[in-house]
Amino acid sequence: MKLTRKKTAVAGGVLSLVLAGTGLAGCSGGDGPDSAPAAAAPSASATAVQVSTGDTVSASGTVQSSRVRELAFTTGGVITKLNVKAGDKVAKGDLLGTVDSTVARENLSAAYTAYVAAQDDYEDVKSGKNLTASSEDDKDSDAPGANNGQGQGTQGSGNGSQGRTGAVQTTAEAYAALVKAKNAYTKAQREVAGTKVHAPFAGTITALSGTVDAEVQPGTTVFTLTDGAHLRISAEFSEADTSRLKKGQKATVVFDSLDEEVGGKIISVSPVPVSSSATAAAGPGGGFQASSTSVVRYQVLVSLNRTPAETRVGAPVTVEVKTG
């Protein structure tokens, strides 16, 4: 009988311990002031946050062309022809558009005539033709240029000569007039050439501003030409990540829309920030604090080992760089 009671007592004690443990577990989930929070098991997401990215840094970026040129007419006027539209592909040297060249060509013709006349005057003065002083007695006269020297003079001290304009000139004066006329003629040639815009390289017209019969001022951008054959990646890395990057490092470029990865190399890291953004910290009550943290970013340019098919300028990418 004693043995039986002893076993019963032991069993009862074990049961009491089990019930006590259950009661404690129930108390731990209560809302009372004396209840202690239960230790939470580490979750998979918490573990991922604590794991360091190690030797890899990454940033979002876009595809851009290494050559983009804004093109304008250097001579203003009314647009008479536009041979392209946005999206058209062009070859080097293609004529993109023209403005009215009537006035420019008239100025060119007048400048050419003046230039030819100045050439003839200079040759006449150099050769001594049409000398104002035609005899020895004339050397003592008060006529302009008659006493500018004896015999064939050098530039600046030669005999005076009657030019085609009727003015008496020295060799230096005739030469100065020739240079002035030549410069005017060259300027007129540039004005005629400025009535046309040619493609400086092969590419795609990515923007077009201007319409036929509209007047355009000199230097106003009308065409934007983008070289689609020479592409690169522009990405903005945080200041902390940029400190781990340098020119020549290998990179991996992930084309988000094409689901394709391409190798590349860093070709430049901007020494000055290109952008900054502010992030607000969460407050104790779930709101946001008044203070914020500014994140400074630097531009990093990456060359591509190859260009995937169907790649377009402006396409989003992700750049990953192993820094270890």
From TrEMBL:
Keyword tags: Coiled coil, Signal
Presence of keyword Membrane: no
Keyword Cell division: no
UniProt domain YknX-like beta-barrel: residue ranges: 232-321
Compartment annotation: Cell envelope
Chief location category: other
Residue ranges with Gly residues bias: 148-163
CzcB-like barrel-sandwich hybrid domain segment(s): 74-227
InterPro entries: Beta-barrel_YknX, BSH_CzcB-like, UPF0194_transport
Top-level lineage group: Bacteria
Record region (Disordered): 125-167
Secretion signal span: 1-25
Name recorded for this polypeptide: Uncharacterized protein
Originating organism: Actinocorallia aurantiaca
